[in-house]
Amino acid sequence: MPNARAIFVTGTDTNVGKTVVTALLLAHTQAAGINVRALKPFSTGSAADETLLGSLQKASLQVNFFHFADPVAPFSAARQAGTKITLNDVLQKIEDHRASCELLFIEGAGGLLTPLGEKFTAADLITELNAEVIIAAANRLGVLNHTSLTVEALHHRTAAALRVALVEQGPTADASRATNPEVLRELLPTVPMIRIPFFKNYQPTADFHREKAKSLQADLARILDKKNPPDTEAEGTFP
User: Is 200 noted as a catalytic residue in this protein?
Assistant: First the structure.
């Protein structure tokens, strides 16, 4: 069986919506009948992200490989725990899952260059896996710089397809959220982008994400389409 298509969901920073984007994509592709899996190999502090992804999949599936209680970068947390994690350790676990599905989503931890283990980052995983990339970016002040830096770093490392999911931040959004989408399209004209709406009364449950994935079906399909990449805005609440 050939290797599954791999899509790595990275972020411009921590707490930018990577898990929401991954969960929506997982729910969408499941509904389309695709044999798909989603992993979050690294996590620190709360285990809520892998719990959500796990709830969307078979209970027996191991979603997370390395979890540490200290809410710091995975490399720092591993060092404090007296653990060393090599790039090969992670790749082997990911490839084991990749051999059993058609499509594999891998959610990163923190941003693209956050240290994950011994001398490697998410960028190294992306390169080794030859994975496509979806960049989750929070629509707030700083997103222009953070997204541009992430795209530039990726262009130096991989020729794989890149896409941006601009995640709305709700009532606390600052004034830049009105102009960020248009400016990002000007700054990154070759990188397709969709917008993920702010979800009122958000719930970190499988049913909630399945419901929202249905409402965003067309946009999620476009962000995954190799032939017709997206350049659109998802329907939803943009406060």
Answer: no
